[in-house]
Structures are given as structure tokens and as C-alpha cells.
Queue: 4 jobs
Job 1
Amino acid sequence: MRITKITIVKEKENPKNNINDLLLLFGQALGLFSTRDRDKSCYRIFIVLVKALKAGVELSSDELAAQTGLTRGTIVHHLNRLMEAGIVTNYKSKYYINYETLEDLVEDMRTSVNAMIDEVKKTAKHIDKALDLHTTGASKKE
């Protein structure tokens, strides 16, 4: 399990048929693109990395800067965020998406989320036992 921090945002918009709109919605749903990113810098980097994934190549921060028209500092900032999210890896100064497909990324996220929820549930069970709380299988609100 590689992913340690997961942000999921439910989008109200319906996906459009345009691949760029779909990639934007996909990234927004994963919490990759913040509203502070006025120039859509992270989105632009993500698009280049997805194209590199399709081509089977890895890119340096300088190559990403050249392809996006962004400064190397901006590139490194967003790459660090993508690496913290477990989506991008850096190996020998080259960056790439950790997965063969975006669907694989989502499946890994699903596995990570399920494991995290199981751990939180174990903790809750331990707390319930320590506080002598009893479960009846039903909520008190019912």
C-alpha cells in the first residue's frame, strides 16, 4: 500500500466528453487541484505526466517546465504534492505516475481507504471496550 493520504472531493458536475474536462474532473475529485492554483499549474503538470505515462517515458523537472511553460520551482512544488499523495515517483531525477493506468490508481486508493477504515474501526472498538460502551447493532437515533 503506497498511498498514505487520500483526499476525495465529490463533484456536482457531470463529466463531459472532452478528455481535458474529464482529466480536470478526475484530478479535482482526487483533491489534486486546489482553488489557490489560479494558473492550473498542477493540472498542467498532471496532463503532461499522463501523456508521458501513455508514451512510457519519465520526465525531469526541467522537461516538465519546458513542456508546461512553468518555472522549475513551481514544477518541484507541485511534484512534491503529487509525490506526497503517492501518485508520482521520482527516480534518478525523473518523474512518473506510479501506475500503468488511472484506473489502477483508483483501485489502489480503494484498497488504501478500506485498510484505513479497518484500522479506524479497530481503534473505535478498542475505545468502546475501554469506555465500557456496548454496541446493540443499532443507532440510538433510530
Job 2
Amino acid sequence: METTEWSATKEQVLCQQGILNPHPERVKDEFFAQHAFFDARDLVQVRYEMVRRVLVEGQPVGKTAAAFGYSRVTLYQLRKRFQAEGMAGLLPRAKGPRRAHKLGEEIVRYIEERLERETEMRMADLPARVEAEFGVRVHGRSIERALARQRKKD
């Protein structure tokens, strides 16, 4: 297999796994420029090498972060995650809300009360009722998940 063929295949694999570096051009580290082993397209390799330089070699955080195309804050966060989770800490995190931010306790309480009082109410009716009462648009499945979390707590 030719180098260019392997390179294209590797890029496809990295993309499929969600670890293709979106900005390989920002990696200015000399090893990535001089050695074929180091691949700026491999996000986990870039992050690992950056953290390793600081932890093992004692390189300055600011200079190292800049050489790898990251901010100091991001390097500190990655270092902390790596120390707590190992290599898994260097994987990209899912973007978006981390919790049900629309369905707070007040809304969940309202839903539970409606279901208790109005036994004929269907789950399909709840999104419209929540929107009318609180002005918040939510999906029926989000309501089901919120109720399941609440039952787990109780």
C-alpha cells in the first residue's frame, strides 16, 4: 500500500471514529513536521503528545499549547482529564446540553400533578400543555425521560 493510499485510509478511519483533528494546520510542533510517525490529523495523538510534553518533559504550558494549536486553558483541561481518565480523557466530548435544561423541577412537578389529577391525559398531550403553561417547547420523549429520572430519584 502506498503512503498516500494509507494516508487517505487513515483519514477516513479517524473521521469515522470522530477523532480527526479539525485543524491539523495549527500544529506547529517540530516533531509533527519532521517525523512521519506523528500525524497532526490524529486528534488523540496530538493531544497526548501535547500533554506528555508538559507532564513528562516539563515543557512550559503556554509555549507547548501554542505549538500544538491549543489555548493554555484547553491544555490544562486536557491534562486534568488525562490524569483522571487516561487516554479516554483525551477523546472529544459530546457537544450540547449535559442535562435536561428545559425540564426543571417545577415543570416536572407540574407534569406529575397533571398525570395524577387528570387520569385520562395521554403522554402525547403533555408537550402542548407544558408549552401553554410555561412557554417551553419540549418533545414527548424528553418528558418521558425526565419522568423516568424523577422516579429513579424517588
Job 3
Amino acid sequence: MNAIQAIQLTVTSGEMVCTGYLNDLTDTEMMQRPATGCNHINWQVGHLIASEHQMMEHILPGSMPPLPTGFVTQYSKETATSDDPATFLNKEQLLQVFKEQRAGTLANLQKQTPEDFDRPTGVDYAPNVAAMFSMQGLHWLMHAGQWAVVRRQLGRPPLF
């Protein structure tokens, strides 16, 4: 296994867990918060998509598919407290944007050389290109724990 394959495994493993948690949730359930003061799942997914786009653009400017007009504002810190579903994309639209962005991330990953992975990013949480790519699976998994809580609140059995 080479570095590209290892990083891709991290990214796609995170995707497998996260999409597993999201697959059977309704649009209404995507608006549920795991606890007072936490962000609902719809906002979290939008935040993850916007973050992935931003991180990839940081290391490879101009390389990602464009986000829908207004997406970054729609999923900004300012909208995190909104419980109005009309403020956000529905689940189907949101997951379509995710698929487009993830395809861009994985295409970018395939273009990297071993030397590229050592290139510094200037970002403390992902100090080099390898870490920035790995974050695309890890960041999603960081949020997935909250989704597991919502699933249990909804009476769903554990998946993993």
C-alpha cells in the first residue's frame, strides 16, 4: 500500500461510517440537535462540506468543484442556531453537494506525489498536505459521534 492508498482508506472509511449514520434519516431528523447548544445534523453536514472545500482549496487553489451559490453563508456560524429547515438544503441536495466535493478531493489526492505530502500547509491542525487530506475522513468522524447520539434518541439501534 502506498501513501495515496493509505490516505484514501482514511477518507473513505470516514465516509462509510458517516453515510451509514445519515442514510435512513429524514429531513426532519437531520434538523435534530443531540443536546442543547449543539448544532443539528443538517448544519454539521453543510459545515463539513464547506470545510472540505476550503481545506482542499487552501492546498490546491482552483482545484475543487464550485459550491452552490450562497452555500458558505448558508452553513456559516451565523446560521448554526437556526432551526428553520428552509434556511438549509434538504438532505438529498446536501448529499449531492457532498458527493461532488468528495469526488474533487479524491481526484486531487490521486494527483499527489510522495514529495507533495510533506509540503507544509501553514495550518496547525493539518501541518502538511498528507494531514490535510487525512482530515477529510477524520473531521467527518469527529462529528459522527453526535449523529450516533441523535440516532439513539430516535430509537435507532447502533450501526457500528
Job 4
Amino acid sequence: MRSTFWLLTSVALAAAASASAAPPARVEITYEVSRNGMLLGEVTHRLEHDGRAYLITETWKGRGLLALRGSATRVSRGVIAADGLRPLEFSDERTGRNTARVRFDWDARTVVMQYRGEPRTEPLPERAHDRLAFAFDFAFAGARDVTFDLLDGRGQSRHRYTIDGRERITVPAGQFDAVRVVRRTDKDRTELWLAEGRSLLPARVLVVDKDGVRIEQVATRISAQ
């Protein structure tokens, strides 16, 4: 009986989330990032889309000593399909490191990754995505149990997220009724709170590793056009 209840609840949540409208054409979200309560820096995500194609840009600004490490920018561009976002290009550029790149070829079912050395071509994973855009996938395809094969130019890993209920959260950007999706492994736990009143955009992200270290990202400002 209990398992049936949770199954019906998950289905209802997914259906309600899928019915939500796509996010506005231009969205900017600023987050504060902290480690065990200590502020590390500020991250800004900018999303632009026209219903067919999208562009997401992430910029990182460190605080204190971290500001001396330079800048970091990640970019994902791609198309919007019925089942969510399909990246075509991803790049991760950081001061003092090689730029990581990924090119997705959905027709040939191949992916080209490059970080150090020559580009390498590999088969496209079943649910290929990149490490930036996947968190915005829910805003276009709805909150649901989903598996992502995440690629970042250096390698790939499989991430399984499941709906774990709803709750009202308070972050500096405001109060939101949110769908909570969770990924659990033997190394860490990742939780995303998707704001229902904001097209299921991520308002809070929490990663807790097996040693109890907490990396938290909370929205301080959400603007849309």
C-alpha cells in the first residue's frame, strides 16, 4: 500500500511538472556557493532560448583567496527536443587549465571530447548531456525520474535522479514551492530544488560527500524577460 502511494505521488508530481510552461526566453540566476557554511564565491547562470535552440552560460567569481585563482566560464549550446535539452557543444574554460570541450553529433550517434591532447571520438551515450545544461533540463521536460550520461570533455559518468517529494524552501531570492530531486551514490548525495513558480529552475543545490562536507548553491537573484 505504501509503495503504491509513493508511486502515485511520483506520477502526479511528474505530470504536474511536465505541464508547466517553459522558462522565459531570457533568464539570469545568481547563486552564492559555500562549503560547510563558508562563502566561496558567486556563480551566475544565463539562459537564452527561442523554443528551438538554447544557450546557457555560467560564470564564476571567487571570493577572498579564491578570487586569485582567476576566472571560470562554462558554455552549453544546443537544441530543445520533446524529451528535453540536447546539447551540441559544451566548453569549460578556467584560468590555468586546458579548456575542456565536447561536441555532440546526434545523427551519427558520436561524441567528440577534448581536454588534453588530440580530440577523441566515442559512441554517444544513451542519455547524453553535459555538466552545465542538465540541471535546466527539468525546466523544459518536467520533473521526473531520469538518468543523465554527463560528459565534460575529460570523461563521462552516469547520474540517476529521482523525485523525492515537494517542500517549501527559503533562499535569498525568495520563498518557493519546490520539487526535490535527489541523486545518491556510495560517495555522495546531490539534491536539487526546482522552483515550481519559476518554471522548475534550480533554486538550490546541495552536494554532501561521504565525509559530510557540504557544498551548497543557493539563488540570491532570479530575473527573467
